[in-house]
Every structure is written in structure tokens, then in C-alpha cells.
Amino acid sequence: MRRTFRMPPKNVLRTMADHLRKYETLFTLTPQRMRMIVEAFTESLDVGLAKPDQIVPMIPTFVFGWPSGQETGDYLALDLGGTNLRVCLVTLQGNGKFELTQTKYRLAEEQKQDDGQKLFDFCAECLKTFVESNVGEGPGMLKEGQVLPLGFTFSYPCTQERIDHGELIRWTKGFGAPNTEGRDVAAMFKESLAKHNLPVQLTALINDTTGTLIASHYVNPRTKIAVIFGTGCNAAYMEHVKDIPKIANLGVPPDADMAINCEWGAFDSFEHEHLPRTKYDIIVDEASNKPGEQAFEKLISGRYLGEILRLVLCELIDEGVLFLGQNTYKLEKPYCFDTAFLSLMESDPTDELLMIIGIFTHFFAIETTLAERQFFRALAKLIGRRAARLSSCGIAAIVKKMGYLEEGCAVGADGSLYNKYPGFADRVHEGLQDIFGDKGRNIVTYHAEDGSGVGSAIIAAMTKIRKDAGLCLHV
């Protein structure tokens, strides 16, 4: 069937090129600017370790040291993520090996905003369903009456005084469940577990990034840093206790090492002195449920990239540059332009950019010209590349702080952006080389092990070993 396209307005090719140059200026990060961001980022990490309640909170996790690789046994893991709730049965076999049985449960948007205790009740109900479905004989099954340690992956910033405790600082990733911030979420979840009389013992409350760090090191001991680039963004690494001044009063041996959950999505929040925010980023921030907060996350995470591009398109529609004579109301709904669309646009292999035709016709009932589609793909690339280069600034800050550049290290990376966005990892590596020169090649990211499942189980195992040996969970 022959497809007919509307004719572009006169000089549209020149108009698209002019606008693209403007957006190139707005969204391009020079190596010099990146190095300035790394300096400020490194300083924020140090401040977060020195004092409580800082913008980048640098949360002590009370996960002491690296796994031996010899941890064994059956453990449950529950992961409350940004989109799904996941329950896992992990059998650790030692020597970096494991078996995993898991089930995912979808989280409705309403549940993210409903009362916090109701949210944890739902988590306990799903855990009960999983346990009842996996009781039986044979590998990957739970034995009748077996009480298992549980690692609870709660991927939101919490202050911790021990590993089975955590007070929620603030919700991120679009969550807003009331009656939760400032409360001990481990205690709330234990209350929900008791309601359902579940045969589990909450052993460890961890962040998914901390779990990713431990799981990745379990399999690849060269791993020194873990990062998540997905719906949200975060990093974790192993710090020397002597360099965490804010916990000096706890009596933790200074020669010990402890994993730090950076919660770096908050970098440059409130003051906005260092990150290159455009007017579109400011609109995203001001319209969010947490204005002023999570400044770094709002520039680089998968939750926001599609919205940034949509705002650019809406501005060009208002200026009479795009989609003349067409009804564009479907594009006016916030967050209707998914970040997955940017991935598809960048990876479209066809000369006519048929994937982009499909996105605009199917989801928004809009016809596009080839010139427009080329512009959209170039714009997606600018926004995606900026996200990756800013991500490399965060990694570089930890590398610089810990002195990992000379010897090099592996960085376990997870999340939908890292795993699915075309060229994201390559752009991160390119950014590291722009910051550090040729030595940037010594820092290599790779697809991480399952931190929220396997990592949570390993940490539960490490905590159980520590507890069984009579060691305190906070000292």
C-alpha cells in the first residue's frame, strides 16, 4: 500500500537543522564541564560521610566487608522496586554459584500512593503466596515448616543503625505512600509478616545497589563499585570505616570496611549549583511530586528522559514548527512519551525510520516527515548521551575518591537504561575517558549480578554468619 505524507512547511529542513543546533548546545557536556562536576561530586561524597543529614546522605549499610564466596544455604529475598515486587528463593552453593527461583507481582500506581502499612501488607501477601506455591520436595523448593532468613531489598533512602532496621528518609521513583517517611520500614514490614504468620525471619534490610555490589563481587572479585541506572539511579561501594567520621561514636573498629549506599540521585538538589539543567529539566523538577529533590536522578534516570524529550516536542508544537494542522492532544499528557521510545528511535535501522513512524502513528495518531523523524532521533541521542555522560561523572567521583584509577576496577551496573538503552554503556566508557584520559580505560562497567535477589540473599547469609558468631549487627 502506498503511504502519502503531508508536505513539510517551506524551509522545514533548515528549521529542523537550526533547532537541532540549539539543542546540541543545551544538552552537550564538554570534558571540562564533566571534570568540574566530578570535583563537586567528590566533595559531596566526603561531606555525606562526615556529617549526617546531608544532600548526598552516604548511608552506612552495616554490611561489613566482602563476601567470602563460600556462603551457602537457602534464603528468601523480597525486592520492592519501582515497577514490580519480586520474591526470590536463592540457594547459595558457594564458589560464586547459586540457583534462583522467583516470581514477580505488579505494583499498581495507586498502591505507590496508598497508606504505607497497606503497601507492606501487600508485600507480605505476595510473600505468603510465593511460599505456599513453592513448598515441596526437590531442588528449588521450600521444605514444610522451614523457617528461612529473609533479605528485604528496599531501594529507597533509609538511615540505618543496624542491618535489620531502616528509617525511610524520603520516597523516590514516584512513590508517595503516606505514614512511611521517618518511620522504621523494617518494623512496619515485620508487623505485616506477623499478620500472615509467615515462616520467615527478616535478617537484613538492604538497598538494591548494595545488593548489586555484594552479588557482583561474589561472582567477580575485581568489582569495587556497583551502580544502578534504571527508573532511579544510585551507587554503592566499600568504604574504610576510619573514613566515615559520622559513625565514629558507634565504636566500629576503624580497620573494618563497610558498604556505603550513596543515594547519589540527590546530588546538587535544592541549590542546583553544578548540574547543567535546561528549562525542560526545571519543568520536570517543578511538576514532580518532590520539587527540588533528586536533581541528579531527574537528569539521567529512565523515569524522566522520555518526559524531557516530550517537553521539547511540545515547545516546538507551540512554536508552529512541528505537526502543523494535526491534532496533538495525545502528546500533551505528562509522561506519555516513554523512555523506551527513545531507545527504539536510536536503534531504528531503516532508511525511512519506520519504527519512529510506528511510535507516532500508533501512540499519538500523528503523521511525521522524514526530516522530523531524523530530528527526533538526533534529539533522543542528545538526551540519552547526556544521561550516560553524567552517569560517568558519578562513577568517576567514587573512583577518584578511592584511588582506583591506577589499578583499575570493575563496576557492576544494572538497571533498564544500562541494560536496554542502545550505546549507554559505551557512552559511559567514553565519558570516563573524557574525564580521566587514557587511564579511564582502566574502569570497566559490566552487566551486574542480580543484586536485589542474589545480593540480598548473600547479605542475609553474611548477617546470619555474623549473628551466629555472636557479633553485633552494628559493631
TrEMBL record:
The keyword tRNA processing does not apply. One of its GO terms (biological process) is glycolytic process. GO terms for molecular function: ATP binding; D-glucose binding; fructokinase activity; glucokinase activity; mannokinase activity. Residues 20-218 form the Hexokinase N-terminal domain. This is Phosphotransferase. Residues 224-462 form the Hexokinase C-terminal domain. Its EC number is 2.7.1.-. It comes from Boletus edulis BED1.
